[in-house]
Design brief:
heterodimer; A: about 600 residues; alpha+beta; eight-stranded antiparallel β-sheet; six-stranded mixed β-sheet; about 35% strand; globular; B: about 400 residues; alpha/beta; TIM Barrel; Arc Repressor Mutant, subunit A; 2 domains; three-stranded antiparallel β-sheet; 15 strands; about 20% strand
């Protein structure tokens, strides 16, 4: 098929605006899936993704569409992740396309994520087709959405398509618009190969599979390819497209989207954003925009049972095969023993990894409070990067500390502007800009410490705006900050794994509520357990877990013994899930308590 | 020498179900239907007894316990018939402890006479509390005054050995209520008292209320205070605290229940009953019609069988034995298992001793007062079998 009849596009949307359902309808409509093959939302193939209703890994599907002009078109639909943690991956998948469907919920309107992704798409010069979805809902207000589109981003909303992905209404119009409005891919077929990796995944039998858009040149089975970021060379053994089943092809040409399999050991051999070229006839320059994924959030992962340390490492290695953004290195804690310091793109990424470790690898883990990476400048001029509060040097040795900042964009109905401003203020935000997108909706911009966003900013934002606010943010750099280390002492002994780094103005309040929270989660023990929060040697808060006074089964007679023994076994099992620190049994949730305090 | 053993018979009938009770029992309202079910049920019990009798040669049966349910919900002459049958079948010695559980309002001097005449010599009466409002909350069918009337009937029928069941940690119960209950119980001069803290069991109406946060329980600290008060009041009245929940005048400890706590064999008869014979423990299905139907064909209706290996038996000997304030005798343990407590549980004993929860004195390992209050912490340590499975 001629390249003139190829269209590469993606769908961008705020979470829950119906991206996956729209993708399903498109697949159905183009016959890529028969009704009986349909499971809802086929693009979200991981169970976890489907459960959480988010797309973690993007995938590409090749569709054939018979258009009204009588010609057949090849449509490559590239799915994009819908969470701020994965914004880099979004930018790479956008770079693989010429156009994008901008999906907006007809009742919700434009959200922060919609805007963030839209700006990204405009940066890549994509043709934008606005799609107003869920018009079947009783509270749908497509006219308001159109107004928002025109007033906020100056997009011509007159040709926005009204769709109900649920009922299938408007899907043909969407496909026609893809054919008519999105340009066919360009790119010199004769130039040296330049293919951009926009996703990869690990397959047990094939190794790492790179999903790539061929920008220039061509690649054939048997070619020796080179990764331009690392210089590593592999031989292509399979090229394929997904229709949506994997279908092998002999070659991929400029404009095509497909996957390249070349006995690569793991996904770090084929990093998202990297450029693939031919080893024997390399391109002069890689494609722009590549940056290695860099963790933003760190936490310690420790097995509850020390013996599982090795299994934890094996599991992390396996996950890393498929997740180039996950980093880990061994660390140890006086309280928790041997574990790993892991780096993540964000909190969602952290939760997903943690849940997979527990679910797929059957590990019983303690997760310490997430931390950002601080830049610590010592009095002798040495600069340290500290992502573990326990590693913060003594205050006397520190000249100053810098913490990472983000530019946060918040979309919110006008009535909540005051509440959001209060919250941002409280979270040490610096006001940057505000504008009314429409009289009903405002866009706020703040510079904020990433650490505050990690804590509970999003939950608070949602609760103060009845769920209407949406948030997006991007890293802007480091700023000097007056932070201190807050220590927690159980039974008079500091517990390194419970330490956290907080802003000095917050230390008092944080210390008090952390002690209160710990009092709730630490069960009564044989002895009274004092909980103290301290900065240096100064105690700033104190709580006490009262001693357990009575815990004994009232009855145990003949018929009861089996049942009573099971009960005791269950108790014992529960106790095993706790970490014994000194004499104190501490449950797993205690180590995450910092996330739940005010 | 033959091993001492006991017989438990479960009588799964009640006038009404109590709000907290998760024991297996049924309520049959129609009188003639009830009598017919009771007849078939007790017939099945006799068949079950007959079935086991042939291979019980190695045991010397010394106690019989009729529990429920409410055994005295069944006409006394029918219970008497079963007692006579079992006494003969298992050759219970004259004067063997034969206990029957009873509820106030289900006994009279006449019915008690009938039971006494066939050898029942111990009655365990469910008094629970002496405040009508609390009895009402529990769903009991009797008043506090009925308890006194029943005790008079016991005396009239010549029962000098009787137990009162009491409960604490009840919804709405105050320390003053509990103190009054203990004092009034002591005034009735029982030989034995069981004081149970309320356990909210799944599947009971209480559990339903509890999970909806509608059960006004006194709380852990008050419950501990109530337990301490029971010890205080009863010990001063001359009762010996001999098991977690049990107090007796010296010499009036319940011989049948001691078999459980000493991990000795017992035969369990009736629906939902458990028995421990040889190296196995079985539990009958909690299903009255199923039980009756099965024994019409001389078939057991067992729901669960568990093999007891030596390790499990040792663990259970400790878990049950440490419920007794006298604890576990090193000499008896050694004689039974051929090894010392310290060979089997070196770390556990050391750890618990260091924490002040157990002590070893005069050849016996027992709980300290704190270990008594924190019994579960102690018992858990002696569960080795679960560790190996993990």
């Amino acid at each position: 098929m001629s390249r003139r009849n190829v269209r590469n596009f993606c769908i961008i949307a705020h979470i829950d605006h119906g991206k996956s359902t729209l993708a399903d309808r498109i697949l159905e409509h183009t016959g890529a899936l028969e009704g009986r093959e349909m499971t809802d939302q086929v693009l979200d193939s991981m169970d976890l993704e489907r459960e959480r209703g988010i797309t973690i890994k993007l995938k590409a599907v090749r569709l054939t569409y018979q258009a009204r002009d009588g010609q057949a078109y090849t449509l490559n639909l590239i799915d994009t992740p819908g969470h701020v943690d994965f914004s880099y991956e979004v930018s790479r998948s956008l770079a693989a396309c010429e156009g994008a469907l901008l999906v907006i919920d007809a009742s919700q309107g434009i959200e922060a994520q919609t805007l963030a992704n839209l700006y990204l798409a405009l940066e890549h010069d994509l043709e934008i087709i606005p799609v107003i979805n869920k018009i079947d809902l009783p509270n749908a207000d497509p006219e308001r959405v159109k107004r928002e589109l025109e007033e906020s981003v100056g997009l011509d909303a007159s040709d926005a398509i009204l769709v109900s992905a649920k009922t299938g209404q408007g899907i043909t119009e969407v496909l026609e618009a893809v054919v008519e409005r999105i340009p066919a891919p360009q790119g010199d077929l004769e130039a040296p190969l330049r293919a951009m990796v926009f996703d990869s995944h690990y397959d047990t039998y094939r190794g790492a599979v790179a999903y790539a858009r061929i920008m220039e040149g061509a690649v054939r089975v048997g070619d020796r390819i080179m990764m331009m970021s690392s210089g590593r060379v592999f031989e292509v053994n399979t090229l394929a497209v997904f229709a949506p089943q994997m279908t092998a092809v002999d070659a991929l040409y400029a404009g095509d989207v497909g996957c390249i399999i070349a006995s690569m050991k793991d996904v770090r051999d084929t990093r998202v954003g990297d450029t693939i070229t031919l080893a024997d006839r390399p391109a002069k320059e890689p494609l722009p925009g590549y940056r290695p994924a860099k963790p933003m959030v760190y936490c310690g992962l420790y097995p509850v049972i020390n013996e599982e340390y090795v299994s934890l490492r094996d599991a992390l290695e396996k996950l890393q095969l498929n997740d180039a953004a996950l980093t880990f290195e061994a660390e140890s804690s006086a309280a928790l023993g041997f574990g790993y310091r892991c780096g993540f793109l964000g909190l969602l990424h952290l939760e997903i990894v943690q849940e997979r470790l527990e679910r797929e690898f059957d590990l019983n883990l303690i997760t310490t409070a997430p931390s950002v990476q601080y830049r610590v400048v010592l009095t002798d001029g040495t600069v340290l990067e500290v992502d573990n509060p326990a590693k913060l040097p003594d205050a006397a040795l520190i000249d100053y500390v810098e913490e990472p900042y983000v530019r946060a964009t918040i979309m919110v109905p006008s009535e909540f502007v005051g509440a959001v401003m209060d919250l941002c203020q409280d979270k040490r935000g610096t006001f940057i800009h505000m504008e009314y997108v429409t009289p009903e909706r405002a866009k706020l911009e703040y510079d904020m410490p990433l650490a505050e966003i990690l804590l509970d900013f999003f939950d608070k934002l949602k609760s103060r705006t009845k769920g209407y606010a949406s948030l997006d943010y991007e890293m802007t750099g480091y700023r000097e900050s007056d932070v201190v280390k807050l220590d927690i002492l159980l039974n008079g002994k500091p517990v390194d794994a419970l330490s956290c780094i907080v802003h000095r103005t917050k230390a008092q309040v944080r210390g008090r509520s952390l002690a209160e929270k710990l009092k709730e989660v630490i069960p009564r023990q044989q002895f009274e357990v004092p909980i103290q929060a301290a900065i240096g040697s100064r105690i700033i808060a104190r709580e006490t877990v009262k001693a357990l006074r009575k815990d004994v089964l009232a009855k145990c007679y003949g018929g009861d013994i089996s049942r009573k023994r099971k009960l005791l076994e269950k108790q014992k099992e529960g106790k095993k899930r706790m970490k014994n620190l000194g004499n104190v049994d501490v449950p797993q949730e205690a180590f995450m308590a910092i996330l739940e305090v005010d | 020498m033959k091993e001492t053993a006991g017989i438990y018979v479960h009588i799964p009938f009640c006038l009404r179900k109590c709000e907290y009770c998760d024991f297996h029992s049924i309520v049959v309202n129609d009188r003639s239907e009830f009598l017919a079910v009771v007849d078939s049920y007790l017939c099945a019990v006799q068949r079950e007894a007959q079935y086991y009798a042939s291979w019980m040669e190695e045991y010397r049966f010394e106690t019989l316990f009729l529990g429920g349910g409410t055994p005295t919900a069944v006409p006394a002459e029918k219970l008497a018939e079963v007692v006579v049958y079992l006494r003969e079948l298992f050759q219970l010695p004259v004067g063997a402890e034969i206990t029957c559980e009873a509820n106030p309002k289900t006994i009279t001097a006449e019915s008690l006479n009938e039971l006494r005449d066939v050898g029942v010599n111990r009655i365990s009466l469910g008094a629970q509390a002496f405040q009508d409002s609390l009895l009402d909350v529990l769903g009991r069918t009797h008043s506090a005054a009925d308890v006194s009337t029943s005790v008079q009937a016991l005396h009239a029928a010549g029962f000098t050995d009787f137990n009162l069941d009491l409960m604490f940690g009840l919804p709405g119960q105050t320390m003053a209520d509990w103190q009054a209950t203990l004092e009034r119980a002591v005034d009735l001069a029982p030989t034995h008292l069981s004081c149970y803290s309320l356990i909210v069991e799944e599947g009971t109406p209480f559990y339903d209320l509890f999970s909806r946060d509608l059960l006004d329980l006194p709380g852990e600290d008050t419950e501990a205070d109530m337990y301490a008060l029971a010890r205080d009041v009863l010990q001063r009245a001359g009762y010996r605290h001999y098991e977690v929940s049990n107090f007796a005048l010296p010499g009036n400890e319940c011989a049948h229940n001691l078999l459980y706590w000493k991990n000795q064999p017992y035969l369990g008869l009736g629906s939902s009953a458990s028995g421990r014979v040889g190296t196995m423990r079985y539990t009958n299905a909690a299903d009255v019609p199923g039980y009756i139907a099965a024994w019409q064909h001389n078939q057991p209706n067992i729901a669960h069988v568990e093999a007891l290996d030596k390790d499990k038996e040792m663990d259970e000997t400790l878990i049950c034995g440490l419920r007794l304030l006298d604890g576990v005798s090193e000499a008896e343990f050694r004689e039974r298992f051929g090894c010392s407590l310290w060979e089997v549980y070196p770390d556990q004993i050391k750890n618990l001793e260091e924490r002040g929860l157990v002590q070893y004195r005069a050849g016996r390992l027992s709980v300290t007062t704190q270990g008594l209050f924190l019994g579960n912490v102690v018992y858990r340590e002696f569960l080795r079998s679960s560790e190996r499975r993990i």
